[in-house]
Amino acid sequence: MDMAKPLILRTVLIAACLALAAAQGSPGTATFYGGPDGSGTMGGACGYGNLYDAGYGVLNAALSQTLFNDGASCGQCYTITCDTSRPGGQYCKPGTSITVSATNLCPANYALPGGGWCGPGRPHFDMSQPAWENIGVYQAGIIPVVYQQVKCSRGGGVRFSIAGCNYFLLVNIQNLGGSGTVGAAWVKGDSTGWIQMSRNWGANWQALAGLVGQGLSFAVSSTGGQYIQFLNVAPAWWQFGETYTTYQNFYY
Q: Any idea where the Expansin-like CBD domain is (predicted)?
């Protein structure tokens, strides 16, 4: 009898199981906040403000430090499934998943051991209550989950919300499809070339330039690698505090 064959078969089966587990996602945990209507999730560390106006709605989540990545994950989409195979799985709603957008940070609570559920090294989603209740039983409070980053599907085009002052432009870039996140951004006035922007905080990108009185165009590269120029987004009479909607969006 060839003793190598059972060993090879076991090795193949183990590899297949590991590949299947990876395809199904990564383990984490989830809680909820913001009330039954999700109103308490508005605003947050990505700077989106009213999440309905910004294109994200109530199916959102605050990410732990490990996932938030200093704001680079703002706008990403995750499909989350309650994990019935782990402790706490009895509080799952079996066979259900929900896709949420990352719109906030769940900060560590260092009054608790290890910073609590959102402490360093812990992949955790503090979801809006309406999103969470798609997959978990309210009384549980916290459930084990499996999560996977997925492509975002958005309604309408990318939005640019403009703040700052005369020589400082701060732009919140919202409602990205595809990867959901900005990899790089540029702004152009009627009388300038393309000026590269840098991330300030959350989904806010800045440019140290005096562009008041000029029409504005933007260029954005998604973290998925797609590059789009959004020409003539704001007229020369744009004002700080206004948001401008485009008709273009990302696919990856």
A: 167-246
A 10 A CB-CB count for 110 gives 11
Q: Measured between alpha carbons, how far is 172 from 158 in angstroms, rounded to an integer? A: 10
**Cα dihedral 79, 45, 200, 170 sign:** positive
What is the 3 state secondary structure string of 108-132? CCCCCHHHCCCCCCCCEEEEEHHHH
pLDDT (tens digit per residue) in 60-94: 999 999 999 999 999 999 999 999 999 999 999 99
d(CA 144, CA 137) in angstroms, rounded, equals 12
Range 17-28 burial, b when 16+ CB lie within 10 A, else e: eeeeeeeebeeb
- The 3-state DSSP class for residue 61 equals strand
Name the pairing type of β-strands 60-64 and 97-106.
Answer: parallel
Residue type, position 94, single letter: P
Tokens of 134: 């798609």
Classified as helix, coil or strand, 230 is strand
* Mean pLDDT to the nearest integer, 174-200: 98
What is the DSSP-derived secondary structure letter of residue 70? G
CA distance 86 to 145: 9
